Every structure is written in C-alpha cells, then in structure tokens.
C-alpha cells in the first residue's frame, strides 16, 4: 500500500459553494470522499489537503518526500504564480500529476501558463472534478510500473 498526496490550493475550499458554472456542484469534501474510495479500491492510502497559504502546500510537498509515492496537485491560482511550489516539486522524485477542474486554456490568457507544468508528469484540465479520479489512476499505474522495475 502506497501513500498518494492530493494537494489543493487557494479558494478550492469554496468548491460547490460558488461559481458552479465553472467548477461544478461537488464540494471539496465530496472530492475527498471520491478520492478516498478510489484510492482504497486501488490499494492505496491518501493524504488530502487544501490550503490558502503557499507555505503549507510547500510543507506538504516536503512531507511527501519522506513518505509519498505520488502527488496529485491542483495548485489553483498558485499554478500561474509560484516558482516556490515548482522548486518544491522539483525535489520530489515520484510521479506528479497536475489537475485543473476547468479548462484553463479556454479561459483568460494569464491562466494559460503553469509553473507546475514544468515538473508535472501529466496535466489534466477541463474534466471537472473527475480529473482527480483520472489523476489517481495514473499515479497508481506509475507506482505499479516503478514497483516492477
Ligand atoms: O480549474 C482549476 O482547477 C483552477 O486550478 C482553479 C483555480 C484557478 O485560479 C485556476 O486558474 C484553475 C481557482 C480555484 C478557485 O476555486 C473556487 C471554487 C469555487 C468557487 C470559487 C473559487
């Protein structure tokens, strides 16, 4: 059994409560429950976190260096601004999948660039909260491939 970190950036605590036309009706607690269910089906544990503070996300990435087998991250607005989160992810040697609920490429130009994508092994955007499930499946299959080596 491996541990997958699922990290969420600023304002995602409002998921399902505001702007449902962009982010859907599921709350972050719903997303966490879905992630937990899928990870356990796949034989993994998750640590699911959200913060509005950049340093907390960096601290969780550092924690994942000790015991994480993969990271699924929706850095939210930090996607487009944070070299510090990119630097932290660059110290993590296991799979990283970046998730965006909305299709950032269909939105304002400032959302088209992601610092995190410089490190991510894969990027999912515009598939709603289902993107988290697909990201967990991908991390799980990369963990399996690495275990066979
Ligand atoms: O599409 C995504 O998942 C984003 O990462 C969400 C970020 C945005 O800054 C990125 O460009 C794309 C915003 C998260 C804010 O979440 C809210 C959820 C519900 C209501 C209000 C904000």
From TrEMBL:
Pathway: Metabolic intermediate biosynthesis; chorismate biosynthesis; chorismate from D-erythrose 4-phosphate and phosphoenolpyruvate: step 3/7. One of its GO terms (biological process) is amino acid biosynthetic process. It catalyses: 3-dehydroquinate = 3-dehydroshikimate + H2O. The active site is at residues 23, 100. Catalyzes a trans-dehydration via an enolate intermediate. This is 3-dehydroquinate dehydratase. It comes from Rhizobium tibeticum. Keywords: Amino-acid biosynthesis, Aromatic amino acid biosynthesis, Lyase. HAMAP family: AroQ. Coiled coil: none annotated. Its EC number is 4.2.1.10. InterPro entries: DHquinase_II, DHquinase_II_CS, DHquinase_II_sf. Substrate binds at residues 74, 80, 87, 101-102, 111. Belongs to the type-II 3-dehydroquinase family. The record marks 18 as: Transition state stabilizer. PANTHER family: CATABOLIC 3-DEHYDROQUINASE (PTHR21272). It is an enzyme of class 4 (lyase). Homododecamer. One of its GO terms (molecular function) is 3-dehydroquinate dehydratase activity.
